[in-house]
Amino acid sequence: TMSVSASDPFTLELAGHSLKQLAERYGTPLYIFDRATIVNACAQYREAFRREYQASSVQILYASKAYLSPMLARLIAEEGLGLDVVSGGELLVAHRAAFPMERISFHGNNKSAEELRLALRLGVGRIVLDNWSELRRLTQIAREMQMHPGVLVRVAPDVETDTHRYLQTGHATAKFGFPLSTGDAAEAVRTILREGQLHLLGLHAHSGTMLRETRPYEECLQRLLELAVLLHKETGWWPQELSPGGGWAIATPDAPDRPDPALLAAALQRCILHCVDTLKISQPLPMLIIEPGRSIIARAGIALYRIGARKATPGGITYLFVDGGMADNIRPALYGALYTALPVEQLEREHDVSFCVSGRYCESGDMLIEEVRLPDMREGELLLLPTAGAYCLPMASNYNLVPRPGVLLVDKETIHVMERRETYDDLLSRYCD
Ligand code: LLP
C-alpha cells in the first residue's frame, strides 16, 4: 500500500516505511513486496469464487512460477490457497515452508524421474501429466514406490488467445499437453484407467497468460467437459477435478483498467451451467481448480533502483542508467512488456522530461522502459517501478556476473528480509577452481 509520508507529503512510503530509508538500509536494486496487497489479492479471488461459483467447490492455486520464497509460501498457505509448482526447486521451497502438500499441483512438460520421485516422496496432491513419456515415467516410478499418486491429464485444448506469442500455450502447435483433436488426450485417460497405477483425478488445460477475456477459459472448460462426457459414456470414469488453468491479466500502462477476478468467476460459473444443460450432465460437478499467478503477486511488488548516470545522446534520447536492468527484469526485452516509473522523492516536480530507462548490463536491449516522462531526474536519485512482483525475480539471471537483488516483505509492523542480496562470495562459490 503506497502512500506519501505524513512528515513529508512529497516522498513515497510503502506500508508506512520510507522507501528512501529502505533503499539506504538494504541497498539497491531492491524488490519490495507489500503483504497487505498480497492478502487482498488472495481475498479477492476467494470472495469472487465464493460468490459467483456455487456449482461445486473451488480450489485456488497460486502459480508459484510468478514468484516464490518460503516466506511467501507460508503466507499463501495462511490465505487458504494451494500452489502450482513446476520444478523440484519450487517443490522444495514449498516443503521448506511446510506447505500442505495435498494442496500442491506439480506441473511442467518435462519433469525428470528425480523430480517425480521427490514429488511422490513428499506426497504432492496431484501431478499434471503433459505427455506420453511422462505418463510412462510416472507409472513406472509409482509402481516401484508402490504408490498410486493423484494425477490430472493436461489437455492441449486448441484454443486461440489474444496475447503475446510467447505467452500462448493452448493453440494447436503449443508444446503443452496431450492434443485433443488427435485423440491423444482421450487415449491418455484410457491408458491410466486401464493400468490402474495412477489415480486419475481430472483434466486440465491452460490456454495462455495475460488474458483479458473470459472466452479462452470458457472454450477450455467446454472442451474438457465434452471430453469428460465422452469418456464417461465409454469408461464410466468421471473427473473429480477440472482446471482451465491460470493466466488472468493485470493492468498495464497500455491497458490500465484492472481485470476483475469476479468477471472470470462469473463467466466460469455461467459456462459450466451452460455445459450441464447442453451436454446433459447428471454427474456431480467436478471441483474447479484455477491457477492465478501474476494477478495475485504482480501489483504487490515494486522494484527500487538508484540512478547512476544520465546521458543525452545526439540522437535525441536521454538515458537514465539504473543499477539493475535486464538481469532482474527480462520482461521488456523478452516480451516487449511495458512498465512505468515514478520518482520516490520531491514528488511535487512536474513530469516534463522524456527518458529511456536503461539498465547496467552490456546490451543495447537492456531497456526497462523505452520512453517515460519523469521530472528532471539526476544521478543519485531513486527510481521506482510499480507492478514488478510477477515474473521478474524468478526469471532473473547473473548476467555480467552481477549479484541478484535483495527482496523484502513489508507490512505496517515489520520489515522481513525475504531474500538477502546476493554477494560476490555467493557468485564465486560456484566455481570449482
Ligand atoms: N497455470 C499454468 C499451467 C501456467 O502455465 C501458468 C503460466 C499459470 C498457471 C499462471 O499464469 P499467470 O496467472 O501467472 O499468468 N514469464 C511470462 C509468463 C509465463 C507464464 C507461464 N505459465 C511473463 O513474464 O509474462
UniProtKB/TrEMBL annotation:
Biological processes per GO annotation: lysine biosynthetic process via diaminopimelate
This protein's UniProt keywords: Amino-acid biosynthesis, Decarboxylase, Lyase, Lysine biosynthesis, Pyridoxal phosphate
Residues covered by the Orn/DAP/Arg decarboxylase 2 N-terminal domain: 36-298
CDD domains, A to Z: PLPDE_III_DapDC
Single Gene Ontology MF annotation: diaminopimelate decarboxylase activity
Listed SUPFAM superfamilies: Alanine racemase C-terminal domain-like, PLP-binding barrel
Catalytic reaction(s) noted: meso-2,6-diaminopimelate + H(+) = L-lysine + CO2
Catalytic class of the enzyme: lyase
Pathway(s) of this molecule: Amino-acid biosynthesis; L-lysine biosynthesis via DAP pathway; L-lysine from DL-2,6-diaminopimelate: step 1/1
Binding site for substrate: R294, R331, Y335, E363, Y391
Active site location: C362
InterPro entries in the record: Ala_racemase/Decarboxylase_C, DAP_deCOOHase_LysA, De-COase2_N, Orn/DAP/Arg_de-COase, PLP-binding_barrel
Needed cofactors: pyridoxal 5'-phosphate
The organism's place on the tree of life at top rank: Bacteria
N6-(pyridoxal phosphate)lysine carried by residues: K65
Family note: Belongs to the Orn/Lys/Arg decarboxylase class-II family. LysA subfamily.
HAMAP family on file: LysA
Primary role: Specifically catalyzes the decarboxylation of meso-diaminopimelate (meso-DAP) to L-lysine.
The name this protein goes by in its record: Diaminopimelate decarboxylase
Species this chain originates from: Thermosporothrix hazakensis
Protein's gene: lysA
